[in-house]
Amino acid sequence: MIGWMRHAPRWVAVSVSGIAAVLLLVGAVSHIIDILTHGLHPYAWAPGWLNLYWSSLALLDVLAAVLLIRGERRGVDLACVITTTDTAANWYAVYGFQHGDFAARPGLQRLTFFATLVLVTAPFIRRHLAQ
User: Fold this and answer.
1) Using an 8 Å Cβ cutoff, are 35 and 55 in contact?
2) Which strand (E) or helix (H) includes residue 70?
3) Quick one: which of 24, 32, 39, 91 could link to 61 by a disulfide (CB 3.0–4.6 Å)?
4) Which residues are CB-contacts of 53 (< 8 A; sequence separation ≥ 6)?
């Protein structure tokens, strides 16, 4: 573990958890809006399984945020799973279906940064949270 993480006070872990919870809720709102405007298959270009995965994030993002706000380690674990799989799914979609470019996709850049933040800070945050 990185040295400063080992010695950082609890308020840093709480702050990072709060930021992650807010960003997960922003993602949930985005998925909810997609569902309300386009149904469970909001992206016509994407296969059904990918659409259903992204639609499921409307619930999973909220669940992870609530668990983080409650100070539970399961929230960190779920946030790690969500950010890892969502980032992988978005990279797959950009390169596999849209033949896009990372530099031209600010949403993918933000998601990749957020996933990195969650994964790098997760061990530190887990130490400070309840079982």
Assistant:
1) yes
2) none
3) 24
4) 85, 89
